Predict the structure of Uroporphyrinogen decarboxylase.
Amino acid sequence: MTSAAPVAPLISAYRGVRPATTPVWFMRQAGRSLPEYRELRIGHSMLDACLEPELAAEITLQPVRRHGVDAAIFFSDIVIPLKLAGVGVEIVAGRGPVFEKPVRTAADVAALPTLTVDDLAPVAAGVARTVEGLRAIGDGTTPLIGFAGAPFTLAAYLVEGGPSKEHLAARTLMHADPDAWAALMAWAADASGLFLRAQVLAGASAVQLFDSWAGSVSLADYVTRVAPASARALGHVADLHVEVPGEPAARGDQAGDQAGDQKVSIPVPKVHFGVGTGELLPAMRDVGADVVGVDWRIPLDEAVRRLGGAVPVQGNIDPALLAAPWPVLEAHLRDVLARAAAAPAHVLNLGHGVPPETDPGVLTRIVDFVHGLTQ
Amino acid sequence: MTSAAPVAPLISAYRGVRPATTPVWFMRQAGRSLPEYRELRIGHSMLDACLEPELAAEITLQPVRRHGVDAAIFFSDIVIPLKLAGVGVEIVAGRGPVFEKPVRTAADVAALPTLTVDDLAPVAAGVARTVEGLRAIGDGTTPLIGFAGAPFTLAAYLVEGGPSKEHLAARTLMHADPDAWAALMAWAADASGLFLRAQVLAGASAVQLFDSWAGSVSLADYVTRVAPASARALGHVADLHVEVPGEPAARGDQAGDQAGDQKVSIPVPKVHFGVGTGELLPAMRDVGADVVGVDWRIPLDEAVRRLGGAVPVQGNIDPALLAAPWPVLEAHLRDVLARAAAAPAHVLNLGHGVPPETDPGVLTRIVDFVHGLTQ
């Protein structure tokens, strides 16, 4: 980026300032919906693809090239920080991550290996390579979002030993042994936070914490047993700044090192997203998020209302509509965008990840459509 | 029942009148948590067990004998009315119901076979046998609740061809072809409603409509694309009455045929339950439910508030707490019961089904604990 470059629309929106057009990207935009991804993955396991820097970077760049989205999101898997720490886990096709040994007791928690910065070298290398690649796409300013699963989602995987529907074993441990639970959540928070930190230090311009499974807990449990760890995870990037063109405008901004270069250093924007978390939105903001992601279950204006009107939001296209005829999908997009007017700023996204069977042409069409509108 | 028998606490609570002690039963109380169930099922497929009257009755009675719960719930499976209509479906262990051919188009919907009253004969026989068996347990007044999956849940199975996480194909059809969707939902509503009707005519004293998957739709979609069919399903039992001891007290009550026998005929109580449906509770009441079931995600007093304070509620023990030490579970039970004071009446239940690995002794202990308290 040069001092003449505009602030990327994504970063502007994440800071609560509406850009001329609504930025748009798609959760799980890198992945199975793209034929070029399916081709590239041949002969590579999922976790290998995440940990091979060149491959992870290329997969991350594919949807940026194809769709012209306003952000790249680093291609990774929720269990990568656990794997890198030394936890025995593999991705089993059609099932998801399966762990060698579920974590069920205080002793199991105490025996978890510690994730170090060195362990994260393949991730840092992949991010650096991605950021370099992004400079060669379009006007070279597309930002990269760093990615991590939130502590609850990581802990649920660890306790269950794999995917589960209502995360009963994890939620039992939460109440049956609150100390072991707190220790596990602190461990997961550090794994999650260090994973995010490595990505920002390597060049990511924003981070998103995914709490895929937070929707299975009550607000009371969320506030007392989950939120402190999510705050701890985001705390690992609280001191990090990213450089953007412009002038200091908000609390936390710092003038650039060189006078007159019109660059400022801003705190890295932090997005927090969960599925089925309509009841939890303010609590999810309060862990230190700048932006809150909203699934498709509640209208965006209602989400904004629950958030008190002052928080930028991201979402909330119903993924089921991607397979509907275009006029139906367009009406839905217009509805989401209209409801987003209640927020200080909005980043258009799905309410959950791109379904694997999605026609990628539909995603490109959404980007073109949204970029053709002016706010 | 004789004219001297008290109104069963369950029926009293379902009518909004608090009995001396809180009635309690458990969703999926009949099933894999019981060793006597696992033994009885040997050599019988799930669907065979549901359709063999003697077996279904015995399985239904097992938890009443063991736990002393305040209700039996007829042992069945959500897909039974579809199976009886002639839809090709089998239960695959570890996966759930799998259909020969998903229903995806208007033509597929039009080709669905019609469920008739005659098809439901095995269900009616199982219910009659259960009601007879209940007369021999305790004081002989334990009521039987009839069971059916709600139209959305049935339709989601049919469209997906099996279990699915976010019911994308079903929710796509809902928007992509609203007419085919409406026709499918009407078909499912009749299957669901006739299934309930057969159970009430054979002796069930109440019904519960389970919309396991309604939590995946927004309120707007629920109201326009789901609720009309749920209302249609419950409409199939709207004219049915059940006889209970007592005197006419409420709208819809009718005096018994014989003067002086102190029996009244009341409209069959209708319970409506879904998982993750905190946003939908009033809409779920408005389809014609007398009682609303609440999962564990929102506190019961908040559910009562959303329901306007006038509706009896059922729930909402967190199933994850069943495996916690008793003092933790007891504190949770006391909290649920205290919050239930906001409702006109409350039936204690789980926020979802009994997990298969549950220690059945814990369920018995819950019943004894609750019956030992006076309201």
Q: What stands out?
A: The mean pLDDT of chain A is 94. The radius of gyration of chain A is 20 Å.
